[in-house]
Amino acid sequence: MDIDIFSDLICPWCFIGKRRLDAVLATPVGEGVRVWWRPYQLYPDLPVEGVDRAAFYKARFGSEADSRKVGSRIRDEAYDAGIALAYDKIARVPNTQAGHRLVSFFDGDARQHDLMDALFTAYFCEGRDLGDLDVLAEIASGFGEDPSAIRERLAGDEGREAMREKVRGAYDAGLSGVPCFILAGKFAIPGAQPVDTMSRFIERAKQRLTETTT
């Protein structure tokens, strides 16, 4: 069974949801499941170079907003998923277009799932700028790719319009938040559900698929 995950690289709940799905995939429920990541942009109108995170937070949440603080709920949920969020290290909010294009280079490749974890970790735990092509190329090199070749592809137009079309398609389909897990193209799991909830959804989807083919 295929699971398509709509997410954005700067969405902490997408990172948490990914780790929770990993916990399910490590059990018998995960047998026969294939995961594909699909693009979504929370802030598609950000400039290509991104924006200063402190200024972004003040503009969005008011003059007293502190971009270095992590809300207690999200901090605790992330910790339970094995994630040590380091908002104090994040200097910029990137436009995630280039990052999504990098992910698209791995469509149909089993390495894509681990690449997503590397990208989430780079941003949320290390404060790296995912709008920087050199950063993206370096991350890809950890998966055996030539960083110079990846940077050249990202600097060009490869996959640019296709990524935009996919994001527009998600908006047009009514997707207003991420993560969203689509099971077998038919059943949706909205949000970063707890591991047991996600496991039940996947088991139920597998059962319904079996019923429709027998």
CATH class: Alpha Beta
Order of helices and strands: EHEEHHEHHHHHEEH
Query: Spans of 5+ residues with little confidence (pLDDT < 50)?
Result: none
Task: Could you tell me the CATH topology label.
Answer: Glutaredoxin
Radius of gyration (CA) equals 17 Å
Q: What is the mean pLDDT?
A: 95
Within CATH, the superfamily carries the name: Glutaredoxin
- Assess the beta-strand content as a share of residues: 5-15%
Major sheet description = 4 strands, mixed
Task: Return the structural class.
Answer: alpha+beta
Order of neighbouring strands in the sheet with most strands = 2-1-5-6
Helix content: 40-55%
CATH architecture: 3-Layer(aba) Sandwich
Cα-to-Cα separation, first versus last residue: 16 Å
The tally of strands reads 6
Number of domains: 1
Report the total helices: 9
Shape field: globular
Characterize this entry briefly.
The chain is an alpha+beta fold and 214 residues long.
Task: Explain what the structure shows.
The protein has 214 residues and is of the alpha+beta class. The chain has a single domain (2-212), classed as Glutaredoxin. Helix content is 48%, strand content 11%. It has nine helices and six strands; from the N terminus they run E-H-E-E-H-H-E-H-H-H-H-H-E-E-H. A hairpin with a 3-residue loop joins strand 5 (180-183) and strand 6.
Core attributes:
214 residues; alpha+beta; Glutaredoxin; four-stranded mixed sheet; two-stranded antiparallel ribbon; 11% strand
